[in-house]
């Protein structure tokens, strides 16, 4: 039962201008917000600020207290070959995973969207890697790549390819990790494309067919442009994921061989929790935060103009 | 509706359709291959771990061995407690905050919302060094709450619920207030019931994220009493005592089984939830 609201609205305090009611309203608002804001301040805002400040100090050691060193950590970083290698590796990792997983996601979505036989099963197969723990599937892939008796070796040896230590050779280790990331992510991105494809009105396809457009033309001129917002959303997610990948590195390679698979977050973990050089880890974290900020800014510039959260 | 099924004139027919189905199926099999491989290895004796014979004897010994080789019962309990603690706290905190941001007017609201959104960019996963220091100061290292705390105030949850609450018609809110309901009662009677699909979506995403989360629990725990499954599995499979691959595969399947089964049963809800949670 909804009463005649128009008559009631004046009593209601959204519209009321009395000082007292407005004050009470504001207090309620802040009280509701307080618990979440307190935790956010403690575990997001403060640590981000502390990371920034820490990066200008040296790590305290038993005989040597922390000292202000200005930009020394950043200078050391620029001279640190492992940092550069992890940055370059991460770039290659991003370039290797993002385009392929997005293209595969689009292809998967197009297939599942058409009425192919058994599409529910196919969709399930594509999506399953997404719900599995990375740490668990990395173990499976580790076995898959094992020299001599791993599945990959067995398949290749039947084609006469000689044995190769896929994860143990710097040339191939990063590519192996990239394959795992694509396998894990493509099905996740497919979901968003599928949702977007289903929202394209069928009348557009009918109109295009009447005009005699080929299927490829229809995809290129109608579907793909309409999927642009989805592509941007997926792209941003893919970039962020690429720069915080760490789980499969810990399981499969520990950054090796010879730092060939060290990514940024893995290097931060290693410096912070293996070498316990916390302030150098803080400086490295600032690089990662700057990268993530740049991605968010790019998203804001590209997307925010059209979509308003109101 | 036209004669061509769903009315899409570009839906393939005849040979094209068969070809497309075949390609889609091939990729699907390829995608399931690692999982099928693990299932094969886990359910067969070690000598068949990489040898495929149709009549190889089935066995559950690998699972029994894995279960006894590490305290997996305790790890399961820890993960269950962790996921429950996180989801429960998230739902309460995010609901309150989202309600404030959606329907209250107070000075500093826009700033507060912007501060919340920064967490979408600066994720707890990245702030491991400082958060570890905070946990040390609080004396919480190696406890389940220490794994949960950084994730409880979830910007993503607040954002999703705020969007949902904003679509609730003011008239319903008005009507409840006229009947004498206070702000919290209005929240519980009007807003929460109407946002049920969003809650379900968020819950599925949150549970699967934290069931699978690895780096932060790895850093902040170091005993069996606090370790979740993912860390327990890693400690187990990277041990030095040379465990069989088939036992590791069994342990791997064991740890992913609850989520995998939940996914197979609630497939539609899972897919829709991830979709709803992603589209903003």
Describe the protein.
- The complex is a heterodimer of chains A (310) and B (280).
- With 310 residues, chain A is mainly alpha-helical.
- Chain A has two domains: 5-54, no CATH class; 72-303, MetI-like fold (Orthogonal Bundle), CATH 1.10.3720.
- Chain A has 14 helices and no strands.
- The radius of gyration of chain A is 26 Å and the shape is flat.
- Residues 1-13 of chain A have low confidence and may be disordered.
- Chain B has 280 residues and is mostly helical.
- Chain B folds into two domains: 14-65, no CATH class; 71-278, Orthogonal Bundle (MetI-like fold).
- Chain B has helices spanning 14-42, 61-69, 72-103, 109-121, 128-138, 144-152, 155-166, 170-178, 183-194, 196-212, 215-220, 229-237, 245-265, 267-278.
- In chain B, helix 3 runs parallel beside helix 6, helix 4 (109-121) crosses helix 7 and helix 8 runs antiparallel to helix 9 (183-194).
- The chains are: A mainly alpha (310), B mainly alpha (280).
Task: Provide key terms for this protein.
heterodimer, A: 310 residues, mainly alpha, MetI-like fold, 2 domains, 14 helices, 71% helix, disordered N terminus, B: 280 residues, 72% helix
In short:
Chain A has 310 residues and is an all-alpha fold.
The CATH architecture of the largest domain in chain B would be: Orthogonal Bundle
End-to-end CA span of chain A:
28 Å
In total, how many beta strands of chain B?
0
- CA radius of gyration of chain B is 24 Å
- Secondary-structure element pattern of chain A, one letter each: HHHHHHHHHHHHHH
* CATH superfamily caption of the largest domain in chain B: MetI-like
Number of helices of chain A: 14
| Largest two-chain interface | A-B, 110 and 108 residues
Residue-averaged pLDDT of chain B? 85
Largest sheet of chain A: none
Topology:
The complex is a heterodimer of chains A (310) and B (280).
Chain A (H helix, E strand, L loop, with lengths): L4 H4 L10 H36 L17 H7 L2 H33 L5 H13 L2 H11 L6 H8 L11 H30 L2 H9 L4 H12 L1 H16 L3 H6 L11 H10 L4 H26 L7
Helix pairs in contact in A: 4-5, 4-8, 4-11, 5-8, 8-11, 11-14, 13-14
Chain B lengths: L13 H29 L18 H9 L2 H32 L5 H13 L6 H11 L5 H9 L2 H12 L3 H9 L4 H12 L1 H17 L2 H6 L8 H9 L7 H21 L1 H12 L2
Helix pairs in contact in B: 1-13, 2-13, 3-6, 3-7, 3-10, 3-12, 4-7, 8-9, 10-14, 12-13
């Amino acid at each position: 039962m909804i009463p005649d609201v128009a008559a009631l609205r004046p009593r209601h305090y959204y519209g009321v201008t009395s000082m007292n009611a407005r004050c009470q309203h504001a207090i309620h608002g802040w009280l509701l917000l307080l618990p979440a804001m307190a935790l956010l301040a403690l575990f997001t805002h403060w640590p981000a600020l502390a990371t920034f400040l820490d990066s200008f100090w040296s790590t305290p050691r038993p005989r040597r207290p922390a000292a202000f060193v200005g930009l020394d950590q950043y200078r050391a970083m620029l001279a640190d070959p492992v940092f550069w290698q992890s940055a370059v590796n991460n770039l290659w990792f991003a370039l290797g995973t993002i385009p392929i997983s997005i293209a595969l996601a689009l292809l998967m979505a197009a297939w599942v969207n058409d009425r192919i036989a058994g599409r529910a099963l196919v969709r399930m197969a594509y999506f399953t890697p997404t719900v599995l723990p990375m740490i668990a599937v990395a173990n499976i892939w580790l076995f898959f790549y094992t020299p001599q008796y791993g599945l990959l070796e067995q398949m290749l040896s039947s084609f006469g390819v000689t044995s190769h230590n896929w994860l143990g050779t710097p040339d191939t280790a990063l590519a192996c990790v990239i394959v795992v990331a694509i396998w894990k992510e493509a099905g996740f991105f497919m979901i968003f494309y599928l949702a977007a494809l289903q929202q394209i009105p069928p009348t557009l396809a009918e109109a295009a067919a009447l005009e005699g457009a080929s299927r490829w033309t229809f995809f290129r001129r109608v579907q793909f442009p309409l999927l642009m917002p989805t592509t941007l959303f997926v792209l941003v997610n893919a970039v962020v994921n690429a720069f915080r990948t760490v789980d499969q590195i810990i399981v499969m390679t520990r950054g090796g061989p010879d730092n060939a698979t060290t990514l940024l977050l893995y290097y931060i973990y290693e410096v912070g929790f293996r070498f316990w050089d916390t302030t150098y880890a803080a400086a490295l974290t600032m690089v990662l935060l700057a990268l993530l900020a740049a991605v968010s800014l790019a998203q804001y510039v590209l997307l925010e103009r059209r979509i308003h959260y109101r | 509706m036209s004669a061509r099924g769903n009315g899409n004139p570009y839906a393939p027919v005849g040979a094209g359709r068969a070809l497309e189905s075949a390609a889609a199926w091939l990729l699907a099999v390829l995608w399931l291959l690692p999982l099928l491989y693990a299932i094969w290895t886990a359910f067969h004796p070690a000598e068949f771990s990489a040898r495929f014979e149709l009549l190889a004897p089935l066995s559950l010994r690998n699972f029994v061995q894995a279960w006894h080789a590490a305290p997996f019962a305790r790890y399961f309990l820890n993960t269950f407690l962790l996921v429950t603690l996180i989801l429960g706290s998230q739902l309460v905190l995010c609901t309150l905050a989202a309600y404030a941001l959606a329907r209250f007017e107070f000075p500093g609201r826009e700033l507060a919302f912007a501060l919340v959104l920064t967490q979408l960019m600066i994720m707890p996963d990245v702030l491991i060094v400082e958060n570890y220091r905070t946990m040390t100061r609080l004396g919480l290292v190696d406890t389940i709450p220490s794994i949960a705390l950084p994730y409880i105030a979830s910007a993503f949850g607040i954002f999703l619920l705020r969007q949902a609450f904003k679509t609730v018609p003011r008239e319903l809110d008005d009507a409840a207030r006229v009947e004498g309901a206070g702000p919290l009662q209005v929240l519980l009677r009007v807003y929460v019931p109407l946002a049920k699909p969003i809650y379900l979506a968020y819950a599925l995403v949150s549970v699967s994220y934290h069931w699978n989360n690895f780096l932060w629990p790895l850093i902040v725990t170091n005993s069996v009493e606090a370790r979740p499954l993912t860390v327990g599995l890693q400690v187990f499979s990277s041990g030095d005592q040379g465990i069989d691959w088939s036992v590791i595969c069994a342990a791997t399947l064991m740890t992913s089984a609850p989520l995998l089964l939940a996914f197979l049963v609630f497939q539609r809800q899972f897919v829709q939830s991830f979709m709803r949670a992603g589209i903003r």
